[in-house]
Design goal:
The complex is a heterodimer of chains A (224) and B (90). Chain A is mainly α. Chain A contains 8 helices and no strands. In chain A, helix 2 runs parallel beside helix 8, helix 5 packs antiparallel against helix 6 and helix 7 packs antiparallel against helix 8. The two termini of chain B are 23 Å apart. Chain B contains 4 helices and 3 strands, in the order H-E-H-H-E-E-H. Chain B has one domain: Arc Repressor Mutant, subunit A, CATH 1.10.10.10. In chain B, helix 1 packs antiparallel against helix 4. Chain B is 60% helix and 13% strand. The chains are: A mainly alpha (224), B alpha+beta (90).
């Protein structure tokens, strides 16, 4: 009970520290992958980098930047829409980084990875989902979309792992995706059935940090 | 049927052909790269633009292509990039 009381008392501080950790990990991943992309011009690396750029921006905006505007502007609505939009787009980028070869000619280069026809379709979807959640004052559309998305990503990463068992990080990638999938399910449960129970939320924060750390570990290991 | 080489593999092959002979005539490089003349031209122009290779024309108007420091660095990092793509299923 003492720990739970401490969590309740310091919940805003915990959120900021949590967001800072994620933002720092994302920044490190973006810097490392951007270098690889600039050398190779590989579209898969480009979409992967974008995923972590959007995750980093989502956490930066929700917990750090806009918190300074609390009370000044319509803090809640702006944060909610922007955060959801960026989180959903990040998921789409991660998903598309695994599948881009099926939709794009390998030798062709879109001049932009942020404004090409498929990504614009993702923007539209992400925008619709975040607006629906705003209008319903809920997170149901984001949770549902991310649960479905991460279920598909988990399946793809399992298939990649089973095709290339000798490749080290594919196993960790699959584990990271299963953890993300579980975190989104837990997020939905805690929102709809547990009235945002702070103890469970802490568990979700820890799972998310582990996922981001796993990616960072993989990138450092592979590129050292 | 042999698998079509990906863009990165083609670039690696071109750069490695240049590195192994220090400098190379365009015709020899075309044969070594196993590309169509049109594709070869596109790749070479791209690599010159990215400053991975440079073309040199001597006083007898003979053209040779050589690897720059940046191109050499790319070859060194190619293994890392290849590893990254494999490990993350990209």
């Amino acid at each position: 009970m003492v720990i739970y009381d401490w969590i309740i008392l310091n919940k805003e501080l915990i959120k900021i520290v949590y967001a800072l950790i994620i933002v720092i990990i994302c920044a490190m991943i973006v810097i490392k992958t951007d270098r690889l992309f600039r050398l190779s011009l590989h579209q898969g690396i480009r979409y992967f980098r974008n995923a972590f750029l959007f995750y980093g921006l989502a956490f930066l905006i929700r917990h750090i930047v806009l918190i300074s505007f609390a009370g000044i502007v319509n803090y809640y609505s702006i944060t909610k829409i922007l955060f959801e939009f960026l989180m959903i787009m990040a998921g789409f980028f991660l998903f598309y980084s695994l599948l881009w070869k099926r939709f794009e000619v390998v030798d062709s280069n879109y001049s932009s990875s942020l404004l090409n026809p498929i990504i614009i379709l993702f923007y539209i979807l992400a925008f619709i989902i975040s607006i629906l959640d705003y209008l319903w004052n809920s997170f149901i559309f984001m949770f549902f979309s991310q649960i479905v998305l991460f279920e598909i990503i988990s399946i793809i990463s399992y298939l990649n792992y089973s095709k290339g068992k000798e490749i080290n990080f594919l196993k960790f990638y699959f584990i990271a995706m299963i953890l993300s999938f579980s975190a989104w399910i837990l997020n939905a449960i805690v929102a709809f059935y547990l009235d945002w129970n702070k103890g469970v939320l802490m568990g979700i924060y820890i799972i998310n940090i582990i996922v981001f750390l796993l990616f960072l570990y993989g990138i450092i290991k592979v590129t050292k | 049927m042999a698998k079509k080489r990906e863009r990165l593999e083609v670039i690696r092959d071109i750069l490695e052909s240049i590195r192994s002979s220090r400098n190379i005539k365009p015709t020899r490089l075309l044969y070594a790269s196993n590309l169509s003349p049109q594709m070869f031209k596109e790749y070479v122009n791209e690599l010159i633009k990215k400053e991975f290779i440079k073309a040199h024309v001597d006083e007898k108007n003979r053209k040779t292509i050589f690897l720059t420091k940046k191109g050499n660095n790319f070859l060194e990092e190619y293994k890392i990039i290849e590893n990254f793509i494999e490990n993350f299923g990209l």
